[in-house]
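thread: overnight batch results

M.L. [08:02]
morning all. the overnight job finished for the chain we discussed friday. pasting input first so we're all looking at the same thing
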Amino acid sequence: MSKSIVSIIKGTNVEKMVTDALSLLGGLTSLIKPNSTVVIKPNAGHPSPPETSVNTSPGVVAGVIKVLRQAKPKEILLAEASAIGCDTLECLKVSGIRKAAEEAGIDRIIDIKREKDLIKVPIRDARSGLTRVLLPRFLIEADHIINVPIFKSHCSMVFTCALKNIKGVVQDRIHAQMHQTVLADAMMDLWSVIKADLSIADLIRPAEGFGPHNTSPTDFGCVAAGKDPVAVDATVCRMVGLDLRDVDYFGPAVERGLGNIDEDLIEVRGNSIKEVYKKLWLPYLEGLDAYPGYNFYIENACSSCQGLLALTLEKLKALGQYEKNQGIDIVVGPKKELPKGVRAGNNLILVGDCLKKYRKHGHWAAGCPPLEPLPLWAITDREDQTELTVEGRKRLEKEGEIFDTYAKKKYGR
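M.L. [08:03]
and the structure it wrote out:
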């Protein structure tokens, strides 16, 4: 197999860092055709400000636009579909990405969720339940797709970076379908029909902790870039001390032939992994064994709901609610019938739309996956939780502040 090249640049001037990273990959002229249409895909999934590191940093987005402009493309677009339940344009505004992109000279900003011109693309050798996707025509017809993710801890897959960021090219209905099947396989099925030409990973201030929302940004000062998204993610994992065996989607990615993970098949240019290495705090690796006293029924549950459950239990601790709720039954994932041993009533919590049919037997948190606070509130309030209202968002923000204080005290973050 031919080697994949990944460049790592540590520095303080983002535009220069991006320039140097791309130079080590062969330079702009070898990567971007003149008079081409280029689509930049950042991570702007949630309405969180820049200092949270929930989204790609505005500075990296601006730097990428300015550098790409030197290749004389016909048009540079920025496109995103935010997380389920979020408004893309609001996310781009609050994150600072919209302003940074406009000031850097972006030609157009497109909310993929609002696109009407969609093309049905079959996945003929699907490994998951995702057998077809609807993709926007402009994305399929683009000459280049440039993937610009941020590295952050994530409840769905331990972390998110290059490979997971491509989920943001589909609308909510397809996004939800991906979470209803084996998510790791669905992600690679999507990559098989829509590939980024280049991934430029933002590790200026990557996010540790209980992401994607309760992040703990940390100074790292790097960008990593490559044509092979699998190699980029594998290299980034080695930069932050994450064992590749703890990440579900590397296996499906390699099986799909999407890239390399082995160190001897990846040529690192620029700064070495050793020079930039800094182990990050990724608490989802601990799993549900870290939460004794609760009865979990998680067979067939997707990774998103399992990660969300870990965050929920940690938040119970932060809010002083952990001990008083011990002994309850928490059911996650599709079930033909309620598992043996589950007790219907006030102490039964049902997480996710796949369990809606059992809602009369306990307290149900709606969504696929549910929005972050809904399982928590189903437990603490012992009421069904079906939406996040304006008042609910205020409550979420207040509880988030309590959790941040707790995490800093407990984990020294």
